[in-house]
Every structure is written in structure tokens, then in C-alpha cells.
Amino acid sequence: MRDFEQVRTDRREFREDGRTYYREPGRIIVQDRDGYLIRHDENERFRSLDPRGYRFERQGADFYSYVDRPGGEQIVTVTNDDGRMLRRYLRYRDGRELILIDNSYAGPLRPVYEDVVVLPPPEIRIPRDRYIVDYAQADEAEVYEALTAPPVVQVDRRYTLDQIRYSPDLRARLRSVDINTITFDTGSFTVTPDQAAKLSVIAAAMNRAIRANLREVFLIEGFTDAVGSALDNLSLSDRRAQSVATVLTEQFRVPPENLTTQGYGEQYLKVNTQGPSRENRRVVVQRITPLLQQGQDQGQAAPPSPPPQPR
Questions:
Q1: Whole-model pTM?
Q2: Edge-to-edge strand order for the sheet containing 259-263?
Q3: Across the strands, what pairs with 178?
Q4: Distances (CA, A) of 158 to 31, 42, 50, 293
Q5: CA–CA gap between residue 4 and residue 104 (Å, rounded)
Q6: Each residue of 52-76: pLDDT tens digit?
Q7: What is the pLDDT of residue 133?
Q8: What is the SS3 assignment for 38?
Q9: What is the average pLDDT score of the chain?
Q10: Count of beta carbons in the 10 Å neighbourhood of residue 66
Q11: Other CB atoms closer than 10 Å to residue 34's CB: what's the count?
């Protein structure tokens, strides 16, 4: 696995359209307005999970990647040149498709910051410990409830994955599970074996939720403390989230297609300190299905369509 010093070494800076960009392995970071935003290659996690079975091809302006599941299903992810996900779906052996994530929108490709949705803060009418579940103190039933509960306020329409990722006002409408048993060494995005074992409870809750609804999607969010540069911390947090998603699949068989990840760096400190803090080097999990699939029939496979076939 690449360490973070190598990530820094491989990082390249360039300017385009009046903005500064940083390209590094599997990621692109844009500096604009008041800070940084990061976008990662959605296929990187799948390549690492199954490097021999992973394959892709270009179809017009888009890339189609394919990963075969043991039961004969196929995970199909459609991305653009930068690895930004456009769609992800399961294709069954009989040709049916189950849409998991539709991140498409009308019009040309737009800057990341235009995906930020600003909404008034929700009124939270449930106890704080049910709104943000303390994983260290919770049992599987409490975790499962948080990962299957509806938004705390009504959601009126469907949002894209990018809007959810980059809009704290949207994510505030969802319950969350603070995985405070998984912390990281300074400058590291490796989940140690002893900490990986602590993911068994949330993995069991996720697998149970997915069995009940195959279209569930969970966002794994990575965070850092405030030590170091904001640029490094954003990249590091994004890799931490991906590491946890990989462990959930490799060790606990959580379907990788039902997970997505995003790093937020030092933006949302749990402990308000500028010094080293293991509590701030953490991950949080939210069920984003209601925001992604509002108004859709969440339990049925879509009718067959003739998608491109891998060559």
C-alpha cells in the first residue's frame, strides 16, 4: 500500500480556469474560494479489492468498469475521465439492472463547489445519542436503527451523490454513527488489525440492512485532526474513509457497491483543538439512500436495457 509520504511526492500542482488544482494518485483536489474540495477515482477501491477481476473500457466520453460477483451479478460503474462517478448499478445474469447510484445531472460538467446545497438547519426532535450514535457505547440494534432510519426532517426531492458529499446541510438531515473505536496514527490511513476487528458490529448492521433493501447506500466519511496542512489533511481523510470501506468488504463481506466514501479533512473537529488528537482522526457512517433515491421504488430492479458489454 502506498504511504502518505509517497502521496506527497507524487502530487502535482497546476492551474486551470483561474483555480489551483492538485493531482495525486487516485485524487484531484481543487483550491477555490475559501478552501479545498477533493474528488477521488471511484474505481480505485474496486481495483484494489479484485485486481485480477477488475476490467474497464471506454464508451464515448465515459469509462465503464466491471467487477463480477460470485453469484453471477456484475457491478458496473460509469465514470468520467477524472474518475467522477456518473452511475453505479448491479447487472443480473438475466439482464435486469438495479440502479444503486445515479450521480448524473443535466448540462455540462460543473465545478465541485456548485454542488453545495444550502438549507436551513433541521430541527432535531430525537435524543442527541440517537441522532449521532456513539459506536463505542452502542449495540447492534442501536447501530442498525441509525442506519435504517428515515431523515430527521422530510426530504422533498432526490439529490446527486456529489451534492450529498459536499453539502453539510444535507448530511445534517441524516442520523450518523460515529465510529470512535477506529482512529489512526498521525499521517497514516492504515486500519490496524486490532481496530479492524471492532468494525464487526457496524458491518453486521450494514449487511442486515442491505439484505432488506439491496439499494441501500452508506457514506463513509473520513476526518483528521488539525495538525499539518489543510491540503494534506483532506487527502489523508479521504484515504482513511476508503481504507475503512475496504476493510468492511474484505473482512466482513459488506458489498462494496453499497458503500461510497468521502474525506473532509480537518473541517469538522470533534475535539476543538489545534494539536494532535486521536479522537479527531476518525470515520463516521451515514445512510444516504433517502437522499439519493427519494421518490424512487427502492426495492425493485429496473427493467432491462442494453448497456455496453465488456470486450
A1: 0.90
A2: 132-134, 176-179, 283-287, 218-222, 259-263
A3: 134, 284
A4: 28, 21, 32, 6
A5: 32
A6: 889 999 999 899 999 998 888 999 9
A7: 96
A8: strand
A9: 87
A10: 18
A11: 6
